[in-house]
Amino acid sequence: MSLVKYNNNSISAVTSAASIPSGAMTLIKTLTASSSSTLSFVDGSSDVVLDSTYPIYLFKFINIHASAQYSNFEFQANASGGSGFNETITSTFFEAKHNENNSEALLRYKADNDQANGTAYQNISVSAGIDNDASCSGTLQLFNPSSTTFVKHFISTVQNYRDSDQSQISYVAGYINTTSAIDEISFKFSSGNIDSGKIKLYGIKDSWCQLLNWIIME
pLDDT per residue over 126-146, tens digit each? Predict the structure, then answer.
C-alpha cells in the first residue's frame, strides 16, 4: 500500500484530487423520546427503511436519559413477520469505567451482560444514572439485516454517565442468530422509561473503504 500521488509527490503538496464520495450515509429517521417505554424502528412504518436498500444500518444514540436509576439500555429485533422482540442473540460485553474521584478505574469482561443464544433484550449500556445531567450516547451498527443466508452481526459502543458519577464505556458485539431478514429494532431501558433523548437511524450504502481508497491506493 502507498499514499496516493496525484499531481505531486506528497499529500501535503496535492493541489487537485477526486471528490470524496457523497451520499454514502443517509439519515432515514429520527425518533425523540418523551417518557417513552420503547423507541422502535419498523421497516415500512413512519418512513422507516430497514431492508435491502442498505448493507449497513447505523443507529446513533444522543443523550439518552433514563427515568429509573441503575436501569440498562437495551435492544432487540424482530425477524420479518415476527413479533415479541425475542430473536436469539449470542453476544460479548466489555466495559471500561472511571470514577470522578479517581477511586476506581477498570477494564473487564461482563459475563452477566452477554447472551448465549438468549432471547432477552441485549444490554448495550448498564447502570444508568438519573441526575439531570446524566445520559448515555453511542452507536449500534447492524450489518446486512435483509440477508436470508447469514446471521446478523452487530457492534455497539456506548458512553454512559452512570450512577455513582462514573464514566463508563460499553463495547458490545454479537449476532442475531437467524437467517431470516430482520426488519424491526426496538430500544428500551430494563426498567422505567426513556425519559428523553434521540435515536437517529442512518443507512450506509458503501463501506468506509471507499473513503479510504480516496487517500490510499496500492
Answer: 999 999 999 999 999 999 999
DSSP state of 87: -
Q: Is 3.40.720 the CATH number for 27-212?
A: no
| pLDDT tens readout for residues 52-111 | 999 999 999 999 999 999 999 999 999 999 999 999 999 999 999 999 999 999 999 999
Provide the terminal-to-terminal Cα distance of the chain, rounded to the nearest Å.
4
Beta bridge mates, 201: 29, 59
Residue 49 to residue 145: CA distance in whole angstroms: 11
For the chain, the domains span 27-212
Q: What pTM did the predictor assign?
A: 0.85
**Cβ(176)–Cβ(36) under 8 Å?**
no
**Can you tell me the distance from the alpha carbon of 143 to that of 141, in angstroms, rounded to the nearest whole number?**
7
β-pair partners for 188: 74
C-alpha cell of residue 32: 425523540
The Cα–Cα gap between 105 and 95 comes to 11
Cell representation of residue 200: 437517529
165/128 Cα distance (integer angstroms): 10
